[in-house]
């Protein structure tokens, strides 16, 4: 029987295996996005595990897979803000829907790239590389997402609440700690065994 990690056939933007992995992870992302299982409602924001397929895609499928799955993740996040936004993103939607789209989509696309580059440059065993990549990529995702909010609508949000901009920065820092750290740990716990299992089967699509 032929090894499944032989050179894959190419088809335009992605090879066949990349398209397969992208489709599978996109389906998971869509399921989580449509059902709401990918979002954990908190007081100020929605914590999420929707970033996990993007990280898996970047590690198992490469840069292109991670970016495409990340885009789908961001698109569903944007759609959700139009249907049931958190308190912060409700303000973003009302203030400027284009800014809301940027906040939701761009950091998720960048997540795919960041996860890929982190894994590619990480040293150590497969388990260490995967776990550290999953944790750091999740933290970077949180910082990029909240940083985008602060950069684009932070001043307007502060003005609407009658508070200094630094207070908004402090709020974002608090959310990063309260949401980002648990999300990062969960990501490491979930992503690592999945990637290890994929590698043991000989799957390599990048």
Automatic annotation (TrEMBL):
Output this protein's name: PF12822 family protein
Q: Where is the signal peptide?
A: none
InterPro entries per UniProt: ECF_trnsprt_substrate-spec
Coiled-coil blocks: none
Recall the GO molecular function terms of this protein's record: transmembrane transporter activity
Pfam families from the UniProt entry: ECF_trnsprt (PF12822)
Q: Which domain of life is it from?
A: Bacteria
Q: Where are the transmembrane segments?
A: 20-44, 65-91, 97-119, 131-157, 177-198
